[in-house]
## 1
Amino acid sequence: MINRFLSQTTFSSQEDFIRNLSIEVPENFNFGYDIVDAWAERQPDKKALCWTNDKEEHV
């Protein structure tokens, strides 16, 4: 999924990574749609959202 936003996904060294990592974010990028919905399609049985308040109550 993230490959859609990277021009290169493998690197020969940390220096290569630092020099050549490029994230291409489309003008109409929407994290909810482009990332969360894509995760949900691949693993529909996983939780989409976890909530915790200041009293450490979890939902």
## 2
Amino acid sequence: MFIDIHAHAYRIKPYFMFCTPKRLLEQYDALKIDMGVILPVVSPEIYLPQAVEDVVEMCQEHSDRLIPYCNVDPRAITNSPYAPLTGLLEYYKGLGCKGIGEVMPHMPLLDPMVQNLFACAEKAGLPIVFDGSSQTEGDFGLYDDAGLPQLEYTLQQYPNLLIFGHGPVFWSEIGVLETVARRGVYMDRFGVQHVHLPTGPIDAEGAVPKLFRKYPNLCGDLSDGTAYNAFARDENYGARFMSEFADRLYFGTDICSENTPVMIGDLLLSWRERGKISETVFRKIAYENAEKLLGL
């Protein structure tokens, strides 16, 4: 059994990349995924904004398998660090949304408007998942510096908010970076992506495990290939990390397109079969943590 903490779908097949709920569920059937969370895309840096109400409606139509999150661009309502977003988040919570995300406007994580969204999320009692960026223009995702100091400050500020790390900027720091540029995916001025994920054994722990030990409100979203790379690059360390933080790691796919590759599930199954992780660790990451988080 698997529960997917991170997927995307549009009610009507859009011009760019994303798939419909029907195609998403077909991929779930092929991957033996029982249920999944749909994250709205609301920031135009990655694609045209999607209505949260559409995601809620899609999930109501497939309530046995799909669970909605809401999402709010931090610039919404008043474009200020005092925007009254708590009421909006509580409204979406009343519609059945179980969390917030994927938050990925191209702004610094410590931008006051972004911090306001995190503060309002804490007040509303909803977890938040965000994607990051290693550059300050021509990209999407919340910018952080090498070593993730902006994330650490945010974890300190909102101790009652569950914050889910996701994507290359986060997972590349499972080990110490060889250079600052080895933080995942770089977008050049022509809009072409260049992948610079760290490879090879993890000889020294990076910022991510240190933050996990220090801040109990940090969780790990294992969706997309960058999380797979972080664990598969060093099986011995990756399995130890999963075992140590099993209560705060969540299986995910980040399915966007018609045929999104998903490798983390096979890795979990392989490690369980080979005894690198226990049955207990596997169950927690594969579905039990999500069941608890989502109230299933």
## 3
Amino acid sequence: MDVRAAVAFEAGKPLQIETVQLEGPKAFEVLLEIKATGICHTDEFTLSGADPEGLFPAILGHEGAGIVVDIGPGVTSVKKGDHVIPLYTPECRQCPSCLSRKTNLCTAIRGTQGKGLMPDSTSRFSFGGKPVFHYMGCSTFANFTVLPEIAVAKIREDAPFEKACYIGCGVTTGVGAVVNTAKVEIGATSIVFGLGGIGLNVIQGLRLAGADMIIGVDINPSRKEWGERFGMTHFVNPKEVEGDLVAYLVNLTKRGADQIGGADYTFDCTGNTTVMRQALEASHRGWGQSIIIGVAGAGKEISTRPFQLVTGRVWKGTAFGGARGRTDVPKIVDWYMEGKIEIDPMITHLLPLEDINRGFDLMHSGESIRSVVVY
């Protein structure tokens, strides 16, 4: 079938709107009509050429919501007409990783997904008779796409697509890093580095968990108002700090009899390895946890003095907020619909597919929190 898609033909170039061909679902696959898709920094990371796993030509996009329009043989967990969110982190519930209950990183289709292919090692997309790669197993920058059954989460039908799509990445990654990875407790102190789409969701996750002090750190002064809107209690602009930022933050977190200072939990949402070190060293001696969410460029390495870790600080990474997609994503949709978390204010721009490159421009300029393409 013919579908409309924004195709990334090569790194560093704008996406091109084309009519591409999409083959229907094979066994254990589903065909989705994508109704809305968010534009995420991870898409930009790959499009820029910094992603070591980036493949071209490809149809990017991994933060979507839509409707099942067809199913392949063997599919039992969803049916035609179901509303779903595509999952770049699937949940097969059968692989050693899923069965361990220690991680959300399902390995069932990792080998082919990382190569831009479906589980049978072929692509369902083509253009001009030549294959086009899938992206993160999703390719939501097309109005129709095919995914494995284990990579779609069935959600309630009253959730608006242009809001629910954000749960496919940004919301779940941020909120999940708090509740699943860090397991933040009531009364905790916290620092969030980078108040973009992920960072703001970390902040509202901290508010949901009952954190006491929530410090936001960003060089963009306009993010102060955004952070406060979602529960931030203190704002720090590194450009306005005299001297060492870490020392300033440690001093800021000193409370009562605790004169050591440092946050119980810190979160890096920037992908900047220097900031990752600052986040670790701003966590509390003896028990501080620093969660790395941001994705660094190819070849980048993190470093710190071993003393920082020997004295009890912990570095943790998280992917998709530690969420098990088919199990947890429907719950987060419920949280949104029940008013426990906010999404609407963060959807700052709605765009047609033809304006998708403008969405990337808005991201670069810091004008948007999340731009969403509506089909």
